[in-house]
Write a structure and sequence with these properties.
This is Cyclic di-GMP phosphodiesterase Gmr. The chain is an alpha/beta fold. It is built from eleven helices and ten strands. It binds ligand C2E and magnesium ion (3 copies).
C-alpha cells in the first residue's frame, strides 16, 4: 500500500508540474504576442507632496489585458517576461509610452517608470532612455527611473557606471521597495539616488500604537535626509496615515488614499482639474478616484 501511495504521490506531482510547465509555456507564447497585439496599457498613479498636497508626478504601471484571462497582474507576468527575455521590448515600450504621455502634461509634472534589473543590466539602456526622452520631447529631469535593490547583486563596477551614465543623461533615480530586498546601506553611499521609496509593508500598520514600522520609516527618512534624497511612502491607504507619514518627515506620498492607478485620460483630467495656477498639480480635495 505504501508503494502504491508513493507512486500515486509522484504521479500527482508529475502531472502538476507538467500542467505548470504547459501553463507557463502558454503564458510565454501569449506574452510574445501581446506587444504586437497591443494588449498592454499603462495606468498612472499620482505622487503627492506632503508639504502642499499637490501632485508632483505619476508612476506608470503596466497592465496586460489578456484576450481570455482578462487583466493579468504585473506581479504575475513581469517575472515571466524577465525570464523569457521579453522584458527588454516591453520595458522599452513602457518607457516610450510613459514619456509620450508625460509630454501632454504640464511641464513640471514628473513621470516615474519601473526599470527591471534585466533592463538595468543592458548596456543599451542609456541609449533607449535617451531616445524615449528625445522622441517625446520631455526634459530628462522629468523622468524618474525606479530601480529595486536587486540591481546591486550584479557587478558593482557595471552598476556604478550605469548609474553615472543615467545621471549624465539628466534623469532622476529612485530606489523602489526600499527595505524589502537584501538591504545593505553600503550601496546608498555610492548610488546617486534622488529618492527612496519606502515599501508599503512598512506603511501597513504604522499607525497602530506600539508598531515598530513608524520607527523604521523615521529612521529611513533621517538617513535619506542626510544623504539629500527625497522619500516617498508607498501604499498609503487611509486619511490618518497621511498625517502620520507627514509627521515622520516623508516628502511624498503615493497610495490609494490619493488615487488608484488610472488610465491616461483620467490622469490628464485630474491634472486639468487642478486649474491653471496649480500648474497641473492638484489639491487633495479634488481627487478623482479612490
Ligand atoms: P511598485 O513599482 O512598487 O508599484 C507599486 C504597486 O503598489 C503597484 O502595484 C500599485 O498599484 C500598488 N499600490 C499603490 N498604492 C497602493 C495602496 O495604497 N495600497 C496597496 N495595497 N497597493 C498600492 P501594481 O501596479 O500591481 O505593480 C506591482 C509591481 O509590478 C510594481 O511594484 C513593479 O515592481 C512591477 N511593475 C509594474 N509596472 C511595471 C513596469 O512597467 N515595468 C516593470 N519592470 N515592472 C513593473
Ligand atoms: Mg515602482
Ligand atoms: Mg514599490
Ligand atoms: Mg513593488
Amino acid at each position: 500500500a505504501a508503494k502504491a501511495d508513493g507512486r500515486g504521490v509522484s504521479r500527482f506531482f508529475r502531472d502538476e508540474m507538467l500542467a505548470g510547465a504547459q501553463k507557463r509555456k502558454r503564458l510565454e507564447d501569449d506574452l510574445r504576442r501581446a506587444l504586437g497585439e497591443e494588449e498592454f496599457h499603462l495606468v498612472y498613479q499620482p505622487v503627492v507632496s506632503t508639504k502642499d498636497q499637490r501632485i508632483v508626478g505619476y508612476e506608470a504601471l503596466l497592465r496586460w489585458e489578456h484576450p481570455t484571462r482578462g487583466l493579468v497582474s504585473p506581479a504575475d507576468f513581469v517575472p515571466v517576461a524577465e525570464e523569457c527575455g521579453m522584458i527588454e521590448a516591453i520595458g522599452e515600450w513602457v518607457l516610450r509610452t510613459a514619456c509620450a504621455e508625460a509630454a501632454k502634461w504640464p511641464a513640471q509634472v514628473r513621470i516615474a517608470v519601473n526599470v527591471s534589473p534585466i533592463q538595468f543590466a543592458n548596456p543599451a539602456l542609456p541609449a533607449i532612455v535617451t531616445s524615449a526622452i528625445a522622441s517625446s520631447g520631455i526634459a530628462a529631469s522629468r523622468l524618474e527611473l525606479e530601480i529595486t535593490e536587486s540591481v546591486f547583486v550584479n557587478d558593482d563596477a557595471f552598476s556604478s557606471q550605469m548609474f553615472k551614465t543615467l545621471k549624465g543623461i539628466g534623469v532622476r533615480l529612485a530606489l523602489d521597495d526600499f527595505g524589502t530586498g537584501y538591504s545593505s546601506l553600503g550601496y546608498l553611499r555610492k548610488a546617486p539616488f534622488d529618492k527612496i521609496k519606502i515599501d508599503q509593508s512598512f506603511v501597513r500598520g504604522a499607525i497602530q500604537a506600539g508598531n515598530r514600522n513608524a520607527a523604521i520609516i523615521k529612521a529611513i527618512v533621517t538617513l535619506a535626509d542626510t544623504l539629500g534624497m527625497e522619500t516617498t511612502a508607498e501604499g498609503v491607504e487611509q486619511q490618518d496615515e497621511i498625517t502620520l507619514i507627514r509627521d515622520l518627515g516623508c516628502s511624498h506620498i503615493q497610495g490609494f488614499v490619493y488615487g488608484r492607478p488610472a488610465r491616461a485620460e483620467d490622469a490628464r483630467a485630474q491634472l486639468a482639474s487642478g486649474g491653471a495656477d496649480a500648474g497641473g498639480a492638484k489639491p487633495v480635495g479634488h481627487r478623482v478616484s479612490r
